[in-house]
Records
---
Amino acid sequence: MIEKQDIPGGRLHLLKKDGFTFDVGPSFFSMSYEFKELFDSIGEPIPFELNELNPLYTVNMAGSDRVFQIYKDLDRLAEEFKGIESDFESKVRGYLKGAKEIFHDTEYKIIKRNFDNIVSYALSMATVPMKHLPKMFRTFWAELERHFESEEVKIIFSLVAFFLGATPFNTPSVYNLLNYTELEHDGYWNVKGGMYKIVEGIMGLLEKKGVKMIYNTEITSVQHSGGKMVSVTDSQGQVYRADLFVVNADAAWFRGKFLNRAKYTEAKLDKMEWTLAPFTIYLGVKGTIPGIHHHNYFLGDNFRAYADTIFRSTVAPEKPYYYVNVASKSNPDCAPAGCENLFILCPVPDLRVKPDWSDANKLVEEIIEDLGKRVNFDIKNNILTQVVYTPNEWQKVFNLYKGSGLGLAHGLNQIGALRPANKDEKLNNVYYVGASTHPGTGLPIVVIGSRLVTERIVNEH
Ligand SMILES: Cc1cc2nc3c(=O)[nH]c(=O)nc-3n(C[C@H](O)[C@H](O)[C@H](O)COP(=O)(O)OP(=O)(O)OC[C@H]3O[C@@H](n4cnc5c(N)ncnc54)[C@H](O)[C@@H]3O)c2cc1C
């Protein structure tokens, strides 16, 4: 494996500074059983300890002291929405029933299978029960409106849409299935000792299997002939030959940059839909902050207007919406005694729309001030260490196209056979894994993607 960074893991990266340890990207995941199945498939026990989140997360609304704890236990969740949404429990059960049906009706037909062409994809789509068809034409938000009346419930249940690279107002309603995966099916999980334990666990197994790792070098060109890739060359001019190549760089960007494919020129890539770029702040803070939990969303009071402009705005968001993860709440080793480590993620427009981040400090200050007020703690004057990644760093460090954090978005025009395929169109020994190929982004989904590629390689070679 040839890796640009000095450590493995990609976006599941680790940052250590001044006695604090931060998970750089992912902080939790759904569908934990995908990891269990991955290790089962090689006859190994899972090499890290899963930790179920309860509550799943906490939501702080602007302009009120009300904090919603989102529980998987629906009786308990109903308590949270008492006085806000009448008859919540029966409404949420009705809502989740529909979401459950579409999840199980598409899981093996669309997500967990390979497609060789558009026809096989269309045929598979045709076997999904017709009753789900209206969900293709309705938005995520419209589906929520069919079930709930209060803005609070609709906003909270629609937050997940942003992960797909769109807003709830233009995401198809089929993706309400994500609320089923988190609220009923499997919940949310993280890993004891921090998310990087996943990488350490996998690396232990790879070493046992004799996989050779080469770090700190970047593939800068590829050589092919007669319908096959022959070798790749790195930034130091070293040439690596192989029989088969699996590409983990972005599947769309790689085809344009290294294979000069007309469908993936910069102009074409710019026209595609990409997920939002992350603006991330890693803070080591002196003191323990009582008003904050492990996973927290801090929202403003203009949800619709914010959602409408966030992808298109050429300036940094004012009154930003953001997510805060405080790993030290459940994993004290991440911070020195009496301190907290804060990971703050604010989704922002990518570099196509806002290429200049020289104003990053303003956004950092705004978020730290807002957060301090909302959790009633002087964060600003207790910062012991601070690191900021703007979309520029995300692009430069991880080769993420224009800083898009989760790769290509998941509109109906960019999924299944319409997503860059996991097998190269022209070179029959080149395969792709990761966020921008099939089935898509997020830790459990890229694990599914790696299994689909393995299946292909075993069948075809
Ligand atoms: C801020 C943030 C928060 C996230 N939070 C979550 C979360 O909570 N839960 C969740 O499930 N998902 C989350 N995600 C999404 C998740 O991180 C991704 O879907 C997943 O990690 C993608 O894996 P990948 O293999 O596609 O890419 P990567 O993990 O980025 O791996 C690609 C690797 O290829 C290397 N590389 C690229 N080009 C070259 C080259 N030319 N030569 C050599 N090496 C190269 C890169 O350095 C990198 O190590 C988050 C993402 C971000 C950015």
---
Amino acid sequence: MWSYYPDLLATPVPRYTSYPTAVEFGEDVGADDYAAALDRIESATPVSLYVHIPFCDQICWYCGCNTGAASRTQRLGDYLTALRSEIAMVAKRIGGRARVQRIAFGGGSPNAIAPVDFVRLLDRILTVFDVSNPDISIEIDPRGFSAEWARVLAASSVKRVSLGVQTFAPQIQQAIGRVQPLTDIENAMASLRLRGIDAINFDLMYGLPGQSLADLDATLDETIRLAPSRVALFGYAHLPAMIPRQRRIDASNLPDHKLRFEQAELGFKRLTDAGYLPIGFDHFALPTDPLAIAANEGRVNRNFQGFTDDDTSILLGFGASAISKFPDLIIQNEKRAGHYRDLIGEGRLAPTRGVMVDADERRRGAIIRDLLCRGRARIDMSFSDAARIAMTEFEQRGLITWQGHDLVVHASGRAYARHIAAHFDRIRGAFHDSGRAT
Ligand code: SF4
């Protein structure tokens, strides 16, 4: 049983897919900083690539992604042309000094483009970058997934496919604007497995309108039956002021905080009972999955796609709104697809906002990452006294403990990990540069 302490969860905190977070990005950091960071890449540096496809065949009401309808073929074609140009431009600037280890296609729905366009994109990457035996992954909308796509992914040596599932309950699918019969998921899995792609992830959600514990339990039943190698169980964030498409969702029957907490706990219990290893606070992996192996070896990392076994320190993002990350810089491409196309068309790099990461932020980021990914972090001396004071409430309730200078989050404190980590955030946390508590 997880213990529910609403006072400890009262303050909203980021998901920390990066630190500093996107809220801290400013327009004073842009293309020149990106160019300088690319120029600083040393020979044979491992890098990961992320390619953003901001299109979907159908737009779901709950979705917070930067995506739009794929119905205008001219716009889509122009975007893909720009994307290929950006990939070539960045590769030319790097001049062969980067070794690409991973390539992730996300969105949006990468399968909103034609399979042949996906092949052309991948071909561009393989042609202009130094790539050998890359780990290639892709996000897929099961509603538009065809046998042709499965064949193309297998022929392209794609290793991992992430399926947007969210819920199997038909009435909740209606309520969130994503009607997706169970057979769509079953067919997508069958055709992927038929072609040897077994590394399949399900994205699920709790906290959805009208969703009961029984609804979530039934979705978990189907999930366990279908046995994807990974599951990510996210809490729905209803933010209609920031995400206008969410205004179509009836907010009157959204689960309250306590029910959301119980839903997260139910997901944890059902999936771990079924043999999945918990990764961080919302991912689960079968023991043979590379993410579970990385967790057992203390190698889990966190990036914009969640918990990962990716250990590269440089991520290059391509496409509108894509984020690139370097040890001392996090930077985002222009969000609007049309403006992004214009920048690339003018031969310019596309980042328009970002944040420089100084030594203090790197130190804080490492603590936040370690708490979220590994459940423990070494707290250096300058934070130590203040951290012990700030952690008192968590410690008294048995959610954390201290082992020397290590702050250890107990299994019972997993649901509080982000709130514990947020204390080390320079803006939201309890410590100034000197380490004194505020
Ligand atoms: S298919 Fe995925 S990316 Fe597209 S709108 Fe729905 S949730 Fe968002």
